[in-house]
Amino acid sequence: MTATADSVFLARSEGISAEGVRDQYADGKAAKVWEIFIGDKNSRTDNYKNFLVDLLRQKGCKRLLDVACGTGVDSIMLLEEGFELVSVDASDKMLKYALKERWNRRKEPAFDNWIIEEANWLTLYDDIQDHIKDGFDAVICLGNSFAHLMDSFGDQRGHKQAITNFQKCLKPGGVLLIDHRNYDNILETGSTPAKSLYYNTSHTADIKTSVLFYCGKPTLVSMDYLIEGNKLSSEFRLSYYPHELKRFTEMLLEIFGAQAKHKLYGDFKDMSLVQNPAFYIHLVERIRS
Ligand SMILES: C[S@@+](CC[C@H](N)C(=O)[O-])C[C@H]1O[C@@H](n2cnc3c(N)ncnc32)[C@H](O)[C@@H]1O
């Protein structure tokens, strides 16, 4: 049997079962904190919101698939901006908050029509087949979510399977927007910038970072988050596969085709304007046949 990095190291907070999909959010701790400290729907930074909304409008997108909707923060922001959303996530603990918001705002047509499903990227195309129709204008996978998917076989087959599913959900000419932290820098320095670029949070956060090398390769990065404020304090651990920029870009083009249009952004800016960003955001277009 092949041991994998996440089987030799505790990749999630203690007490979380690892059965089925490895839902690192299953104890509800991070989900609760997301709502209170990080993911309030009005607390997205203007930089982030303007980047995302302007880019989707420039590309003429209307129907979007949010494949890592979590508590629904991005989806809610995009619904309020007039986009149509199908939002999915593998964690019912995270989805609970999105479902609650849909119910509370059900009298608004955009929320009444909002589709929310539980789905896993590895089986996504089958999981949501009825909702794909002619394909989405855009698939978004944001908030460093994709890095949660581990490399269980050491050859990135799961990563490729998930990205193939994202591509299959797009209409020809549709775009995938997917991000990851700057793991090249995390591997070099052993630390993660704690300041959030995505949220205007007034709560202090510290992120203690550990890197696990397995068979000589960096295979797993664990981040222990400490979030404090308003007399509340929360700690949780989340783990990630460290996607290096060059390899991640190659993998996207292997799946979308070498001719596919690909553009890279750093911290929501053109790469010419930013050095050593905390986040990379890739935009890749499905070739029109
Ligand atoms: C860091 S949260 C981000 C949520 C949201 N995009 C945000 O920025 O607030 C990552 C989300 O990815 C989801 N996720 C991780 N692995 C997944 C998988 N294999 N299939 C579907 N969702 C997954 C988790 O359940 C979690 O809700």
UniProtKB/TrEMBL annotation:
It comes from the Eukaryota. This is Glycine N-methyltransferase. InterPro entries: Gly/Sar_N_MeTrfase, Methyltranfer_dom, SAM-dependent_MTases_sf. PROSITE patterns: SAM_GNMT. S-adenosyl-L-methionine binds at Y25, W34, R44, A68, D89, N120, W121, L142. Its main location: cytoplasm. It comes from Drosophila lebanonensis (Fruit fly). It is an enzyme of class 2 (transferase). It is found in: Cytoplasm. One of its GO terms (cellular component) is cytosol. One of its GO terms (biological process) is one-carbon metabolic process.
